[in-house]
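My hope is that you will study the protein record below before we discuss the fold together.
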Amino acid sequence: MNPRSRTGMALADAVRSQFREPPIMDAASKPPPLALLEASGVTLQYKTPRYLVTATYQVDFRVHRGDRYVILGPSGCGKSTLLKAVGGFMSPVEGTMRIRGHKIKVPARTA
């Protein structure tokens, strides 16, 4: 191969290397993004005069920046109870709920 061909091939390789995608990292080497809201194994219960109601049982979900969700279900399935727990107005009997990595314990103070 003549020197001119080698120079052309080296230049082509250099240009191609600029457009290569970065290597994909496997899950073990890259930490997962921090969720804005995370529920892990959340069971929520409340008492009525006659019953102990289990509104949710071992619920898991994550909400990340830009995510949009709808909480939909029939009356009595735990929608409002779940939102009360997200707001800090009730605590799970099992599991944890976190906002930006911080455990939800009490309602947030407004500024």
